[in-house]
């Protein structure tokens, strides 16, 4: 029991004992006790009224003066109030600082309530979404941004996926929106003007596509002439060798322009071309033969383990490009008498294409960057083997378009393994052909 309670109790007991004593002396015990109780009750009531008035009207003033337990109670309440006031002030300061900071951000910021209604926004959001204060407070953002792509934006798992749409007020402005959940079901939407970035990307894409396209015809003509000159038996030995080198380099340039055009095509549309059921095992046995020819005198041991009943729903040229690039790399980066193992198999997680070699391997620091365009571990070696540094970039894009992903595992001097994982919904088996399920991909055309 706190000290003041005991004090108060002792005081009450002492006054009762005193009243009893005086009452006994004057022969009026009941009256004396009643008198003391009335005095105590009156004093409690007066202090209660003072507390009530202070709380109601003068909270900002010091509390009314009082002694004993009442004094303690007044001071306690006063201290609590002071603390709450300080905390409020700090909160308001933090809130103001937050608003000033977000207002100064170059990106638009919109705070949403639990149900998706707009609560607050900054100056950039006013510009990008033409929001008006106070009319638009409480408006649902989903009603303002009516775009088919927005359906995916509101899905629970779409937090890290920014989406890009036209500004609802100006088609010339492209905005990217990103959702961030915080606190108690609160949402923050970050809006960025990406018009300029998109224009620059488009210019770069157009430039690469146009230049590759323009180079294609002269290179075809050049290669045609070189081919007939190389085959011409009247050409002397020295010149013949020069012509062969020229033909080889022209082929490299042709390959480069083809690769660049393919990448531009991938960037132009995210969806793959027309999909069919692809006879992958057949595609791989042809590829194995090509790899053997490409390896030439190095005489690699090439093993193919392919499930003959495992087909895939995909775009045949893109799949061929994926498989070819990985197998050609294995051949190019595996020294003579090395082994290359190609596997095509299925498990619960889907279908997997795996190329394993006993080649030169890749140091761990290079692995995350291998799928970047023109990234080569050893530029000279790669050039020597006819590589452009675009192969794995093509593989990555083609895999994404076919809803798959690429894994790379390698050790310097030991070899490398490249695995392409395709989701189970793309898996087909020949005996399912023409069965006619609801999936548009089941049955239909077959390619290899
Ligand atoms: P490139 O046309 O140069 O082969 P890629 O994009 O196909 O370009 O590959 C990028 C780089 O990754 C290559 O330059 C090479 O250094 C490395 N690489 C790819 N595949 C292998 C492999 N099987 N073994 C060792 N290194 C490889």
From TrEMBL:
Gene3D superfamilies: 1.10.287.130, Histidine kinase-like ATPase, C-terminal domain, PAS domain. Its main location: membrane. Residues 426-448 have a biased composition (Basic and acidic residues). It catalyses: ATP + protein L-histidine = ADP + protein N-phospho-L-histidine. It comes from Thiohalophilus thiocyanatoxydans. Pfam families: HATPase_c, HisKA, PAS, PhoR. One of its GO terms (molecular function) is phosphoprotein phosphatase activity. It is found in: Cell membrane. Keywords: ATP-binding, Cell membrane, Kinase, Membrane, Nucleotide-binding, Phosphate transport, Phosphoprotein, Transferase, Transmembrane, Transmembrane helix, Transport, Two-component regulatory system. The keyword ATP-binding applies. The chain crosses the membrane at residues 12-45. Signal peptide: none annotated. Residues 423-448 are annotated as: Disordered. One of its GO terms (cellular component) is plasma membrane. PROSITE patterns: HIS_KIN. This is Phosphate regulon sensor protein PhoR.
